[in-house]
Amino acid sequence: MLWQKAWLETRGRFLGGLVLGAIVAFGAIYDFRAVERLLPVVRNIDPSALDTSGPVGAAIRQSLEAQQSFRGFVWWQWYRQNLTYLVVIFGALLGAGGLLAKSGSAALFTLSLPVSRTRLIGTRALVGLAQLLALAIVPSLVLPLLAPSIGESYSIVDVLAHGACMFIVGAVFFSLAALLSNEYTDAWRPVLIACVVAAAIGMLEYIPGIGQYGMFRVMNGESYYRQVGLPWVGLLVNAGIAAALLRTAAVNLAHRDF
Amino acid sequence: MSDGLAIETADLRKRFDTTDALRGLNLRVPRGSIFAFLGRNGAGKTTTIKLLLGMARATSGQAHVLGLPAGDAAASVSIRRRTGFVDESKGLYDYMTVDAMIRFTAAFYPGWRPDHEKRYLQAFGLPRHQRIKTLSLGMRAKLALLLALCRGVELLVLDEPTVGLDPAASEEVLQAIVTHVSTESLTVFFSSHHLADVDQIADHIAIIDAGQTVVSGALDDLRGRYRRVQLVFAGEAPEIAFRAPGVVRVRRQGRVMTALSSAGSHALIEEAMRFGPVSADALPVTLKEIFLESVAQED
Fold first, then answer.
1. Do B55 and A257 touch (CB under 8 A)?
2. Backbone φ and ψ of B296, nearest 5°
3. What whole-number distance in Å separates Cα of residue B54 and Cα of residue B68?
4. Which of A96, B122, B166, B237 is within CB 3.0–4.6 Å of A177 for a Cys-Cys bond?
5. What pLDDT digit, counting tens, does each position of B118-165 carry?
6. Where do the structural domains in chain A lie, given as residue ranges?
7. Which residues on chain A are in Cβ contact (under 8 Å) with B44?
8. Which of B57, B77, B94 sits opposite A116 (nearest CB)?
9. B133 Cβ under 8 Å from any chain A Cβ
10. B53 reaches A (C-beta below 8 A)
11. Rounded CA gap, B277 and A251, in Å?
């Protein structure tokens, strides 16, 4: 029954994220038509003529290079941008709340049930992570389903591989919000702090030399897109960080006075 | 811990930052009793309940509930499996319907009583398909009580069960508790500010003040032991440091001296007679007087 409770408390956020993700993915596919029309112009640009020494120039060059193909366009627009934002924000939203915020004054009722606090937070985390996994994969299924309608194709294996990367790094922000939810009785401060942390990490990745180890590179599966393979080390490190944050949240909750 | 006790605490202490919420609380709640736990706001009643149910951890001291150590996380789960609880705010899941809330709660208690569920749903007039968010405070209190009573447990812990209720709803809740206890073998431990409620249903009480037990025992026994002794003197009442046992408080006002004793009146009157009062009367006291005198600030 704790599963049902966790589902009822998070279904609004989860379904909202799912619908929003599907709409944005749908829009991304038909955006490719517009980009395709610009491709001849873009292809005539000589990348060597661009000043790509700074982070902005490098990003423009990368963007031009990537969006030459539908697969590259999808990676650049969807995985590198839209879905990344979506998973970070909704990951934090799903992780926030927990025992204190959503249950509100019912926290004591929950604590009076014959279950351990570890089971309470564990069930909530498993439901939230399952929802996050669905958010990382399901909206992207629009891509292989609708790509043929514009004369393109997209591999479902790519959806799964990128989805796995999104999910694992997204779990860090989910876990951070879950940890912060032990400290704040409202759901919004944990979300806000998790998003500010994500933005700070994103900015740090513009520092030359740091970017290649960045979380968001792991999250958008850049190495997979470039056919180097999945970023296993990055995935393991992020999974470890997420697990450590969740473990800390569980320990904090177990020792907390209500 | 004695087998005859549902709850026992020994020198229980709880400190929040710089505040001592409990300062060596000693409680002995007999099994099968209806035990009222009284105290002013901030006396430590809710903190005690939270410690008993594992919602907070004691700074030091011992607490046993149904023979199990309340401070042990695993034992606390067992305690909660055998305990029904209603908290002061009657906090329930607003997004559930009455029926969903009942099904949710029942799933955690193997001894859940569908017969009681049916009886109380009918008696309280609870609308099964209505969302909890839309229930009145009275209805929420009744639902919270139903959820506690139907668990098939040995102990009910009720934190201010009638707070915020109108007299009719309050009476309905109290009657449900009394009727339930008369047919089931269980202990009720409840905190309250309403001394009338306590007088109506409790057979044992404890009064706490500033985190310590100041009065404890069977209510009939306390009523038998507590006496107000009123002494009238010809002139100004003298200052007397009574040595008689059980003197709780002495007040002087002009020619009249009033002393409250928790150990009958004989020894106190005998000692007072040496000071030559014009008259000495021993009067029975109400629970309200016992309470007010026990928690009154020192002059």
1. yes
2. -65, 145
3. 11
4. A96
5. 999 999 999 999 999 999 989 999 999 999 999 999 999 999 988 888
6. 2-255
7. none
8. B77
9. no
10. yes
11. 66
